[in-house]
Amino acid sequence: MFKLPDLPYDYDALEPVISAETMEFHHDKHHGKYVETTNKLLLEAGERPAALESVVKGAETSPEKIKLFDNAAQAWNHAFFWQCMSADGSGPTGELADAIGRSFGEPARLKEEFVREGSGHFGSGWVWLAAQNLDLKIFATHDADDPLTRQGMVPLLVCDLWEHAYYLDHQNDREGFLAGWFDNLANWDFAAEQFQAAQGRRAPWRHPAPA
Q1: Which domain holds residue 184?
Q2: pLDDT per residue over 159-180, tens digit each?
Q3: Alpha-carbon distance 72 to 148, whole Å?
Q4: What is the DSSP string of 102-160?
């Protein structure tokens, strides 16, 4: 069965943008519940998958497995989201910076479009920066939907738009949360690795295999 992955940093590492209280509640309770429910549904179905990615892709095409898709995709999205954050404050460099220049003109325009897409999204979901080969795209998905269901799309970064991700710290100011997240927490080293994966030069990030 799948285990709840540990955070790659302490609960308070992302303050003041995201408080330790939010991180503990978000990771331990919300993410933990998605993992727990995914395992329960797989056990009931007698399935022992080798990878969470295969669960998400398989369930997405089966209407009778919508509950499994919602929980498995949310488990994957959250595990990916934790990797997308770092408090080191570095910006994009090298090939990724060049790709940002081609697609958006400059990093300020990238931030503007990322924040606008995320703050304008109605309801719960996620806002993604993803790559198709050398092209970068920003888009939002509803609820549990993610780029695993899109052929040839490799996610570079994602920010959680569900209210439990930011409401304790920012109340209803989703735009302010996204701007602070982009400026202070976006993990550009991780995004650069994913960009290399989009070009076939390395494997993309994968969820930890089941125990």
Answers
A1: 94-198
A2: 999 999 999 999 999 999 999 9
A3: 11
A4: HHHSSHHHHHHHHHHHHHH--SSEEEEEEEETTEEEEEEEETT--GGGSTT-EEEEEEE
Report if residue 50 sits inside a domain. Answer: yes
Listed as own residue / partner, the contacts of 61-67 with beta carbons closer than 8 Å and 24 or more positions apart are 67/37, 67/41
Whether 123 is in a domain gets the answer yes
Q: Total structural domains in the chain? A: 2
Question: Is residue 5 situated within a structural domain?
Answer: no
DSSP structural state of residue 186: B
CATH number at residue 155: 3.55.40.20
125 forms beta bridges with 142
Structure tokens at 96: 């990724």
3-class state of residue 43 by DSSP: helix
Domain at 74, CATH number: 1.10.287.990
Cβ atoms 3, 35 nearer than 8 A: yes
Model confidence pLDDT, tens digit, residues 91-128: 999 999 999 999 999 889 999 999 999 999 999 999 99
Q: Give the Cα separation of 90 and 189 in Å (integer).
A: 8
Residue 148's CB: how many other CB atoms inside 10 A? Answer: 21
Q: Are residues 124 and 188 in the same domain?
A: yes
